[in-house]
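re: ur question from the group chat, yeah i did fold both. here u go
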Amino acid sequence: MINWGVIGAGGIAYRRTIPEGIIKAKNANLIGITDIDSAASEKIGKEFSVTTYKNIDELLKDEKIDAVYIATPIYLHHEQTIRAARNKKNILCEKVMALDQKQCYEMLKACDENKVKFAVGFMMRFNAAHIKIKEIVKNGKLGKIVMARAQLSCWYPQTEGAWRQKKKLSMGGTLTDMGAHCLDILEYIMGTNITDVSCFTGNIVHDYEVEDSSLVTARFGNGAFGVIDNYFNIPDLTSKNILEIYGSKGSVLCRGTIGQESSGTCEIYLEDKEAGYSPDQKRKDIIKKEILDIHYENIYEKEIEYFSDCIEKNIQPRELSGSIGLHNIKIIEACYDSANTSRQKKVL
């Protein structure tokens, strides 16, 4: 059993990761929490019947805690990860990992020097639909993959004090906040990294420092193309958060699997037999459509169980590794570079 402490207990920690993940995971035990908002911290501590620490130092000095979940704003990840590592705590850090590559390298160095495990919170990798689609792609059921798309949107208006709307605190807007997940889940499913990107960003509806819209076109290591589009200006219930994978033998279309829910719907379309070129593009008789039968499990619960298991067995969390988080930052930086220069960029 791994004993957990939470740094930054409001936001996603309070809504999702604590109640759906740490509390429910079979190999995790919530010891205590801390948050910069002392009133919120006290409230959350009482709700979950755990210790409320006055500050991070107090939490990190508690020898009962084996692992910490860092769910603070991005600009705090670097400092807090290094402090946690020096206190010999294993770390699950929310995405994105940090504000730039330099910070990422320093975080990984601190974890390596202190012999603690580090993981990045790409919880969408644990959506059962994504796991199944990855296997379908790997087995060649769709043939040679040609194109993949991931889309995630929400309505996020100008908000007083919102750190996500300040560039120095967040690195960027839609691309950083939601695109990071979309970029990662496509690489996870495709089984290959993005090598080149071209990107547009802009403020189409909301007038704040960071972009409210981003569109990335990408090339994967296997030659396939990708599209990643994210928006802060589409009402939540009107956006379907689409995932599409197209290959030479078929395609998969999902709605709602990208996001914080542990659900969604997926359809697979396969050609029963090769019929050659069809000028009128009407070959309904050889197309097989199937609703994928998926047994969904909570993505936050599975994420916490996975990392806790890695700690217990003393193995590296390869599915959520720091190198994945660093690579994700490299892609995002290349995307912003492309948007600023109107040029295609390599992911170095």
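okk and heres the other one u asked abt
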Amino acid sequence: MKRLWLPLALVVALAGCNSPSESPPPADSRSAAPLAAPVAAPLAAPVAAPVAAPARASWSYEGSTGPARWGDLDPAWSLAKSGRQQSPIDIIPAKAVAMPLPPLAVDYSETSLEILNNGHTIEDDYHGGGTLTVDDQVYRLAQFHFHSPSEHTIDGKYAAMELHLVHKNAAGELAVIGVLIEEGAAHPELALLWDHLPAEPGRSEEIEGLKVNASRLLPASLACWRYAGSLTTPPCSEKVAWFVLRQSITASAEQVAAFRKVIHGNNRPTQSLHGRPVFASP
């Protein structure tokens, strides 16, 4: 396995050496990807990061507890302001490093719907079989959730929503698939979920007799942009492998509005690349 981790360590080291005395730029600034890149993509995370951590402070998406202050609210969240591999990012396709990398392989089984409004997003805890296999690493699907507007941007443009499918391997390392959701035709699988949107934050609820399959939330193509990033909510832990799909799915204006009626804006602003490469792969 060690040969899979070394490229990421090298890329991170190179990215950190680009400007050793540079102070962190504003969150919306951009850094071009370096031209040199390893033959194998730096995807797996060498240090375990939790899917979620018990909150020791209150946080939100606005005001004095908003994203600009997350790193000050709790010492355990310091990476939110000091980290150099933070997510989300603005992806500039023209600057992505094209690489002939192995495609993503997903195998999601149908499972019961266990839906939760946690006050920050709508989340489904995925208890059925579900795996992402990439670069000989197998990650199990732990949960998926939504943001609106999108967190990642493409050439500075936001999508109406973004779906995050959070996977974890046996070593506790994370890999997240991001799916941009553009406003357009209604999505049938979202319709199933939206029929049971919890209006108020609370405990997760299993909807009896209703089955979902996360594969039905994916576009036809799994071609993606890959980069080393972080969780997009506190504690903003780094060493997360990100795969942002290049093809989007759609949701109707009514579906987008229904989500925003329950969750009133939950996207973190894009973060500086700090010299990190973004890879474009099939």
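fwiw on the second one: The two ends are 23 Å apart (CA to CA). Residues 20 and 280 are 27 Å apart (CA to CA). idk if thats what u expected
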